[in-house]
Amino acid sequence: MPQSSPTARLKTLTSHLAATPSAAHALVMPATRPPITCHILDTLSGLPARNIPVTVELLSPTREGKIVFEAVTNDDGRIPAWTAVSSDGNGNVLDMQALFETFEQGADMKWVARFDVLRYFADRNIKPFFPEVEIRFLTSGFGSDANGEERGHWHVPLLLGPYSYTTYRGS
């Protein structure tokens, strides 16, 4: 991996944080974005972190069985859509949007996002200190307003390095 100055890496990272999705990226986005989205940027290279498996699991309110969704980051390091790993008590596959709609409007939901980063770094001959990143967060206030405007959205960005990571509430 070519070495670059901290200033160059910071400039690249900043451009990715501020960039709007490209036209090609927009074509693969679903018609409606899911209530939860993620984005991973590699702070070592300053580039999007692609092909990282991510799962999100609903921790509370509890329901029958585990409620888990999975995805893999795309070339832009983003999760534009989730696949249900679990089903409801009747064997129906869950859709994240529909799941949010089954809860009382404005209900708090506690989630955990797990980013499996070990292979990502192993492919770059780096042994990370953190093989997995786990982020717990709360979604609150889902539901349309009186005009039927867009419902709640929670973006979980991950700035990832082999020896550190940070996150924040994105937009």
Describe the structure.
With 171 residues, this protein is α+β, with helices and mostly antiparallel strands. It has 4 helices and 10 strands, in the order ααββββββαβαβββ. It has one domain: Immunoglobulin-like. The chain has helices at residues 6-18, 23-28, 96-102, 118-122, and strands at 36-42, 47-48, 53-60, 67-72, 78-79, 83-84, 109-116, 132-139, 154-160, 165-167. Strands 1, 2, 5, 9 and 10 form a 5-stranded mixed beta sheet that branches. The chain has a 5-stranded antiparallel beta sheet with strand order 6-4-3-7-8. The two termini are 32 Å apart. The relative contact order is 0.19.
Furnish the topology, listing elements before pairings:
Elements: H1 6-18, H2 23-28, E1 36-42, E2 47-48, E3 53-60, E4 67-72, E5 78-79, E6 83-84, H3 96-102, E7 109-116, H4 118-122, E8 132-139, E9 154-160, E10 165-167
Parallel strand pairs: 1-9
Antiparallel strand pairs: 1-2, 1-5, 3-4, 3-7, 4-6, 7-8, 9-10
